[in-house]
Specification:
The complex is a heterodimer.
Chain A: E1 4-15, E2 22-33, E3 37-42, H1 48-55, E4 63-68, E5 71-72, H2 78-87, E6 89-92, H3 104-113, H4 119-132, H5 148-160, E7 166-170, H6 178-193, E8 197-201, H7 205-210, E9 213-218, E10 221-227
Parallel strand pairs in A: 3-8, 3-9, 6-7, 7-8
Antiparallel strand pairs in A: 1-2, 1-4, 4-5, 9-10
Chain B: H1 6-18, H2 21-59, E1 63-68, H3 89-95, E2 104-113, E3 117-119, E4 122-124, E5 128-132, H4 136-139, E6 144-147, H5 152-156, E7 161-164, H6 166-173, E8 182-185, E9 188-196, E10 201-202, E11 205-206, E12 210-214, H7 215-223, E13 230-235, H8 241-256, E14 266-270, H9 271-314, H10 316-324, H11 329-358, H12 372-398, H13 402-407
Parallel strand pairs in B: 5-12, 7-9
Antiparallel strand pairs in B: 1-13, 1-14, 2-5, 2-13, 3-4, 3-8, 6-9, 7-12, 8-9, 10-11
Helix pairs in contact in B: 1-11, 2-9, 2-11, 2-12, 9-11, 9-12, 11-12
The chains are: A alpha/beta, B alpha+beta.
The structure holds adenosine-5'-diphosphate and magnesium ion (MG).
């Protein structure tokens, strides 16, 4: 039995207008089931990030519909979108995007602050998440005192600490060396094994092979969508 | 958002402020200067107004002066015009008639003269030498501090006796007691019987560099028995001064046969009316100073806006991150507002302290009088400045779509 966490219907995104308009997504149709592990692949400029940003409610589509857990995103106002981002989505960026001059622990605590979790509980869960990504001894370090791989692990801890329905990762290993890449991918798989839906943009066939489903984009269109049996 | 504890909000604000200490300090300095100048400048304005008020009180609001304008002012000026009658002892007697002037307590003639006084080998020319009646001392609000007054009998006998001011006393006798000392004025022997209470300086004139003698003595010794210079009138109380002035005018008109004010050969002045104009100008001064101060507070506010704009712009990506992890607009707005408030309140508080501190010292000869309202106004305005001027850039930042904020370079 599967439930869909994401469903998009004829989703389009156009940047700009007139002669300079860029058609980044062209009538995409897609459904992602709860607990799936999806790799999105495609050449640079094919529209992967655009799709990911819309799925993460960071950007709005130009046309088409997007339902997250059966909620039509178009119906949500600014405040409700903040709640969706806070409760349902964990985002991992290629460039880590940690809050500077703020310890790893506080970075991980922050999303829970917007959920109304008490201070003590926040602290406990943030420490737990950092321990889970192997940074128990780096909790008080600030981002600039951590390596790229460590920063990305903090970012993953921050994404998973709120126990979101899905974690979206846009080229999470794009800025990392091979060893760190393996660690990050292992963390994402670990997360998926516990039931979290994971959508990851990647260039690496190795990641794709490990995924249960691979979606390939070209010029804003899905050209391949393959699912392997578990 | 309510779950964002105060500690987190303060921590965020402090992180923003401390991330660029130099910039924050300069912003705080701007508000500090604004707030303290509001307090100091209004205090200086208030102080000078208070000083003028005190002077009026010293001179006495009861006292009225009648001055001749027909050229017959000086007792020994013989060059007055033929039409002008000049002031006379008879005028003074008429003003002392209680039936015609119920609001006049008393009137005393004044004859101004110029004379040099010597004591031993010390000589001094008092700024003002007057011949008058004993009632002058009360009418002019010039009480004796040491010694006593000369009397009506001294006037009748044209005796050489004098009450002198503290400046003249110091010039002639230095620290010695002047009482019962005999000096020589205009070639005559004069016994000092009293020293008046100090009045201080009015404008350019030292009110204490004076000698007051029986009018008959001055007439006999130097001025002759012509016209007098002024008449010093005292009303029965402060609130009757205007009525008394009207009575003076009526009596003087009938004495001098004046039909209209245009042809009047005298003027009626009240010390407080003279100083009213200086009170008005000191009020204008206060308003002007307050305006200057308000402008500097505004400039401080613009400083905050500028800093908040820069601070918000610099952290646009950070705002994008916060939004991506689920921060609602209100939370972001609050955080930046608190940061702006913290900047302006730090400036406000230190400005109030500095303002109060500096107001303890006298500034350009004025003892500042701090008003609570200026302190409160300056403080509240500085807090509002933070809210309003910080709120605008903060709101701009919080309204961005997450992806726009994240893409910001
Ligand atoms: N903010 C933007 N403004 C204009 N064009 C954009 C913007 N973001 C992306 N694009 C364009 O949209 C297309 C898809 O971009 P993107 O989704 O970032 O691709 P990918 O992540 O697959 O490299 C590209 O042609 C890119 O130039
Ligand atoms: Mg991309």
């Amino acid at each position: 039995m599967t439930t869909s966490v994401v469903k998009v219907n004829d989703l389009s995104k156009t940047y700009g207008a007139g002669e300079t308009a860029v058609y980044a997504l062209k009538k995409i149709n897609l459904e992602i089931q709860q607990g799936d592990f999806v790799a999105i692949m495609g050449a640079s400029g094919s529209g992967k990030s655009t799709l990911m940003n819309i799925l993460g409610c960071l950007d709005a589509p130009t046309a088409g519909n997007y339902w997250i857990r059966n909620l039509d995103v178009a119906d949500l106002d600014e405040e409700q979108l903040a709640v969706v981002r806070s409760q349902l989505i964990g985002f991992v960026f290629q460039s880590f995007n940690l809050i500077p001059r703020t310890s790893a622990l506080r970075n991980v605590e922050l999303p829970m602050a917007y959920q109304g979790v008490s201070r003590a509980e926040r602290r406990r869960r943030a420490a737990e998440a950092l321990t889970a990504v192997g940074l128990a001894d780096r909790m008080e370090h600030q981002p600039h005192e951590l390596s790229g791989g460590q920063q990305q692990r903090v970012a993953i801890a921050r994404a998973l600490v709120t126990e979101p329905a899905m974690v979206l990762a846009d080229e999470p290993t794009g800025a990392l060396d091979t060893a760190s890449t393996h660690e990050i991918l292992e963390l994402l798989h670990e997360l998926n094994r516990k039931g979290t839906t994971v959508v990851v943009i990647t260039h690496e066939e190795e990641v794709a092979r490990a995924a249960r489903r691979v979606i390939r984009l070209r010029d804003g269109e899905i050209i391949e969508d393959r699912t392997w049996a578990a | 958002m309510g779950s964002l504890g105060l500690r987190e909000i303060w921590r965020f604000a402090w992180r923003g402020i401390s991330s660029n200490r130099m910039r924050s300090s300069l912003t705080i300095l701007g508000v500090l200067i604004g707030v303290s100048s509001v307090i100091i400048l209004t205090a200086v304005g208030n102080g000078s107004a208070a000083a003028v008020r005190q002077q009026i009180e010293k001179l006495g609001t009861n006292s009225i002066t009648v001055m001749g304008t027909g050229g017959g002012g000086g007792g020994f000026s013989r060059t007055r015009s033929s039409t002008a009658k000049g002031l006379t002892i008879a005028d003074t007697t008429a003003l002392n008639n209680k039936d015609n002037a119920p609001h006049i307590k008393q009137a005393a003639p004044i004859l101004n003269a110029t004379m040099t006084c010597t004591y031993g080998n010390i000589s001094a020319t008092p700024g003002s030498a007057k011949g008058t009646w004993p009632s002058y001392f009360e009418a002019a609000n010039s009480p004796v501090d040491k010694g006593g007054y000369w009397t009506n009998d001294d006037v009748a006998q044209k005796r050489g006796v004098a009450v002198i001011g503290t400046t003249l006393a110091k010039n002639l006798f230095d620290t010695d007691s002047p009482i019962d000392k005999v000096i020589r004025c205009a070639g005559q022997s004069v016994t000092v019987v009293g020293v008046m209470k100090s009045k201080g300086t009015t404008g350019f004139q030292d009110s204490d560099d004076v000698i007051i003698m029986p009018i008959t003595f001055v007439q006999r010794a130097i001025a002759g028995y012509g016209n007098i210079s002024q008449i010093q009138v005292e009303s029965i109380d402060a609130k009757s001064t205007q009525l008394a002035m009207d009575e003076v005018t009526a009596i003087m008109n009938s004495q001098h046969k004046i039909k209209s004010t245009a042809t009047a050969d005298y003027r009626v002045l009240n010390q407080s009316t003279i100083l009213q104009s200086s009170t008005d100008s000191s009020k204008t001064l206060t308003v002007l100073l307050a305006a200057i101060a308000a402008i500097s507070l505004l400039v401080g506010g613009i400083g905050i806006t500028n800093i908040m704009l820069v601070s918000v712009t610099e952290r646009t990506r950070e705002i994008g991150i916060l939004k991506a992890i689920g921060a609602p607009k209100a939370a972001i707005l609050t955080q930046f507002l608190i940061e702006a408030m913290m900047l302006s309140l730090l400036g406000g508080i230190s400005g109030v302290l500095l303002g109060l501190g500096i107001s303890h010292f006298s500034i350009l000869g004025v003892v500042p009088v701090v008003s609570l309202s200026s302190v409160l106004t300056a403080f509240i305005v500085s807090a509002l400045v933070g809210l309003v001027f910080g709120g605008w850039p903060a709101n701009r930042a919080a309204s961005l779509r997450p992806i726009e904020a994240l893409r910001y370079e």
